[in-house]
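=== RUN LOG ===
request id: a7f3
mode: sequence -> structure
chains: 1
length: 72
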Amino acid sequence: MEQDRNLAYYLDLIRNAPSYQDLVFFRNRTFDAIEATLAPDDVEAVKQAWTDRAKDESVPVVPPGQKRIAEA
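=== RESULT ===
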């Protein structure tokens, strides 16, 4: 049975993303689908939740256990 993809589902995915990298993947893979399926107010709520989480400096850039590549 396919899980109901409503506002709460997407907000939960954002809240539980382990890293900024996961947030970017989520944005790239789902924002078009969200805009096509949710009400405009819900779309804005998802986008605002994503922005707030992406700006949270306590969220690691890469998933735990994955090495960051040092800049040259």
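=== NOTES ===
The helical segments are 7-15, 20-37, 40-55.
Residues 1 and 35 are 23 Å apart (CA to CA).
=== END ===
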